[in-house]
Write a structure and sequence with these properties.
With about 200 residues, this protein is an all-alpha fold. The chain contains 6 helices and no strands.
Length: about 200
């Protein structure tokens, strides 16, 4: 009697296990030299492959567009340059008017008036020279908004703070606009957007 013969009428039905024998399962197909379930890969030749370079956590694309607040600060700095130019012209005109008044016949009769007009000319010309230097400084800083780094940012902050103070004293009559603009420049350059822009990565 053969239990393996499928035509044997006394054997168990085909597909069922024989009594007294443990159940048999088909052997699992495994790749040679690899654990079961692990994908098989072709071994590399030569030097081992380097691991893929991963981007640092939190690093995003480099900033290329200037934030709106920083752009507004640059425009305000150019407005300060224009106001400085107007102030220089007014100071120069005042000094010239004081010189003409000093040379007039009325002033010739009073030595005290001549001395006062002479002192006024010196003060006005001094203010005009300072205004020219401060305007040039502002122009240089305004051109550093695109290419300058954190050093330029700190310099702009110091310039804006000093300009705001000078607008209160001694130029209180003509410096109110300077004070307001300088405070806004300091705020926009000193905030998070200004810090990110001036510290951005450059390639």
């Amino acid at each position: 009697m053969s239990f393996g013969d499928p035509n044997n009428p006394y054997g168990p039905p085909q597909g069922q296990q024989q009594p007294g024998y443990p159940p048999q399962q088909p052997p699992a197909q495994q790749g040679y030299g690899y654990p079961q379930g692990a994908p098989q890969q072709q071994p590399g030749y030569g030097y081992p492959q380097a691991p893929p370079v991963q981007q640092a956590y939190g690093a995003g694309a480099p900033m290329t567009a200037m934030p709106g607040s920083v752009s507004a600060a640059r425009i305000m700095l150019w407005v300060i340059v224009g106001l400085q130019a107007i102030g220089v012209v007014l100071m120069a005109l005042g000094a010239a008017a004081a010189k003409d008044l000093q040379d007039s016949a009325t002033a010739q009769e009073s030595s005290a008036l001549q001395d006062a007009l002479g002192d006024s000319q010196g003060v006005l010309w001094g203010y005009a020279a300072f205004g020219v230097a401060w305007a040039i400084f502002a122009v240089v800083l305004a051109t550093k908004f695109k290419s300058g780094g954190n050093g330029a940012r700190v310099t702009i902050l110091v310039f804006a703070i000093i300009t705001a103070v000078l607008g209160i004293y001694p130029f209180i009559l003509v410096g109110l606009a300077h004070t307001v603009l300088a405070i806004l420049v300091a705020v926009f350059v000193g905030n998070a957007n200004g810090k990110a822009w001036f510290n951005r990565a450059r390639y």
